[in-house]
Amino acid sequence: MAPIQTLIVDDEPLARRRIAQLLAGQPGFVIAGECGTGAEAVAALSHGPAVDLVFLDVQMPDCNGLQVLQQLPARPRPLVVFVTAYDRYTLQAFEAHAVDYLLKPLDPDRFARCLLYVQQRVGQVAAPGWEALVQALPAPPVPYASQLLVKQPGRFYFVPVEQVHYLEATGNYVTVHAPGETHLVRATLTQLASQLDPARFLRIHRSLIVHTTHIKELRPWTHGEYLVTLHDGTHLTSSRSCNEGIQQFLRQFVS
User: Fold this and answer.
1) Helix ranges restricted to H, the chain
2) pTM of the entire structure?
3) Which has the closest alpha carbon to 192: 181, 203, 180, 182?
């Protein structure tokens, strides 16, 4: 089978070199070219020889990776693996149908697993026993958000998720409750929930998600609900529709 023609797009030369080093000697892959800007990538993918795979940096000064994809013509697009130092673009990346999402600094085992995903997608058999190799590689980490972006007129700022006590749906916004302050994020609670680690954030109500490390007590309440008390004294009430998730959360502490 023909080798997978691969384009590397990143504005940092060292980052391009790192990807090239990890690809070196990998059977079935050929580096077809490199681009240092989003504009170069658009030109190469629109008018250059067809490629099968693109390692695409998300943040570039002239044109970010998502904008690169938006500018491409309707010709068949290559598989895309986003590469970035930031985890906050995960949702947008997969909405753009990326085959994978790699965080810098690149881990060799994680990179190798990515290549196997790509080979499966193009129908190329990597090597005899590749299924056993996939199982032997460490599972890819799920890049949950480490901070939430808050937009205000004239500025953007970030709230680390570890500082969040709970999130509350407020119309078309979500109120993020942190020690001594609140922040308003224009998003739905479901959208934010998809970016948060479910091992640390528990949905207790259609309009409430709580950071589990801040839970002090859960007490059975009326009509099958729970009264949830946080360490700072905040009282929240769950809904019965979330009881299964709450009970699953409690079971992990029962030996």
Assistant:
1) 13-23, 38-47, 65-70, 90-95, 108-121, 130-136, 189-193, 243-251
2) 0.51
3) 203
